[in-house]
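Could someone model shikimate-3-phosphate with this protein?
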Amino acid sequence: MSGNIVLCGFMGSGKTTVGQVLAQKSGRRFFDLDQYIEQRQGKTISQIFADEGEQTFRRLETEAARELSSQKDLVIATGGGAVLREENVDILRQNGVIVLLDASLDTLERRLDGVSDRPLLQRDDRQEFLRALYAKRMPLYRTVAQLCVDADHDPDTVSEQILQKAELFFGENT
Ligand code: S3P
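Reply:
Sure, complex below.
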């Protein structure tokens, strides 16, 4: 064991929840990129968006990805926009494998219903926006991810699938 397992996917796909279970199962340490940024900045992601704007948040996200990727044996849950920047993909792949948590639009709509801590979703046309963003981002996630798992299942099942695929991947790539 040494490679990092990096979880990507849409908001609500379960990256943080699955990541914690996966870390436990695989003996890796867990880091959530958003939580890491919040701790460093002493502010929530919503506050960073409101006070400093999305661009500043994206810069902090790249810095955090760089810091964490210099370590080994981690499970890293990224934010839904992190792997949409090519620079971040290069950084995160250096020491790890990028895994897509592929959740259906139905599942995401259900999980994100009533959730208020995602600044991108604080808008009147939330449902239309979510659908359009899903259609735009999913093909990009599929392009950057080296592995993909069905994330409509419970965290235990999803993390087992990831573990199997990641072990095969690292076995073949080391
Ligand atoms: C974002 C997703 C969020 C967080 C920020 C931006 C995005 O993370 O990084 O609100 O661009 O999709 P989650 O995917 O953990 O919700």
